[in-house]
């Protein structure tokens, strides 16, 4: 219904948020300042001992620094009383002595209709419960007893039985004067396509009432007794009462138990929830035979910060768990996530509890893994990464997954954790690791490449990897990164080169990862993707500040040429180093002359790669084939020759 102008303002002026909240919490007198309306208390929405829940009575808002719950007067009543917005308004208006405006006739009509449907559903609950005690339900009772359910448990869960007839419930309800349109509207019967009387939706099934968070029966779930039935489990169709994508089995009791500190467990079916609750794990729910939806994830987070997904230990259960990841990734917030409890293969929670007891189930729940681990398992399990192409495919899939996360802070933390898992997989000889492939690229912030994590073995082995060359490399890396920071429009053009950039500094790697993420999502600020000190370090060297592409008035063309030159020089020099390293590895297979020639050619290649605008100030000697070699390179080359033990290889020194 619509409310007249000024009604809500008047209600707010008559109502104190601190007074309303004070009925649910104990104020911390040491932190609170009642005179200023600045009140603190333990949060009513999650279990805690410290007073992290803040109420600003003057502004009319509350916020929890622990679970991040926030809102105003009306949202607080909605959350704590499990009511809708208009019902919250009614509660507060009644307490404030205000008369509610006349309702919209259509809205009132809809509310009244839903109330009538709920009454019909309660009559159906009683009918099914009575039917379970009849002779026709002997097989159903035997089945339930075999599942370990006592008579008291059957009563607690209001389990019933739908008889094997076409109009059993229909005849019962119409005989009590229930209107036919209400029976059909509640989803308890279906119209006949052959012009006959409507027939019951549920026949020859064990019946489980489904109640909303307020305790109203809104639907049923039925388990077929006939093994040849087309559907083993059948839920009520969607009605004005029932939206299966926004409902959870055992919602109300689970919310109460979760509020008392129990772990919130999401199981697959009714019997799993019943078995968990009967075993003492009362905060258990099920998603009503469908894949978990976004609305259901929100319902779960309203009950608990980290619900535990405990689906069956078969392929279907694992697929369902993996689908939940894709649903939840874009919705992640600070402190709000999911954990996964993978059941033993072939078992569901009910099977495990009956076989090994409640303790075994509790142990699995306590050991539930965070969602990032299951995401990693999904992308890597059963796959072999014995080639660069396969590893690149893994990197791509991880980046695509992390890109779904909207929160930039969580996105960075996911990138960091996936980076760590990736290094552990490849650095420790993970599946399909090929010899001589070098170290893998690390996943940076946002799931992007952030450069190699450890120095390359080949580079360590090369005598040319003196500090001077390493320092020059870092300068070139800094120039490349600083140029791309200033000219981000060039990122798409150089993204492939940037991914291949073998950064030698952790801060450079952080900036590299951030730039790669911006290449895919340019809406973010660089400062949110990498630490400020990394950006400062990139721009700090004087050589960087005078680089052509970094100058304040540098055009895009100048920046493009500068980037192309720096990438080419780094690639050429590092390629020469690898050539020299390979020459050393191959020394046993070359004659003396061949070795000398190959090392000479490698040194020439490196010298050529190093030449720049400063080469006129360098001192050169003449090398093999008349090529000029910088004296520092000649010294390094001589040192390399000195390292080779010709006597050990059975050769004479040249």
TrEMBL record:
Catalysed reactions listed for this entry: ssDNA + n NTP = ssDNA/pppN(pN)n-1 hybrid + (n-1) diphosphate
Enzyme's top EC category: transferase
Signal peptide segment: none
Biased composition (Basic and acidic residues): 608-620
Cofactor requirement: Zn(2+)
Biological process annotations from GO: DNA replication, synthesis of primer
Gene Ontology MF terms: DNA binding; DNA-directed RNA polymerase activity; zinc ion binding
Keyword Nucleus: no
UniProt keyword Nucleotidyltransferase present: yes
CHC2-type zinc finger locations on the chain: 43-67
Gene Ontology cellular component list: cytoplasm; DNA-directed RNA polymerase complex; primosome complex
The EC number(s) this enzyme carries: 2.7.7.101
Pfam families: DNAG_N, Toprim_4, Zn_ribbon_DnaG
Functional note: RNA polymerase that catalyzes the synthesis of short RNA molecules used as primers for DNA polymerase during DNA replication.
Family indicated by similarity: Belongs to the DnaG primase family.
Protein name: DNA primase
Organism: Kangsaoukella pontilimi
Organism placement in taxonomy: Bacteria, Pseudomonadati, Pseudomonadota, Alphaproteobacteria, Rhodobacterales
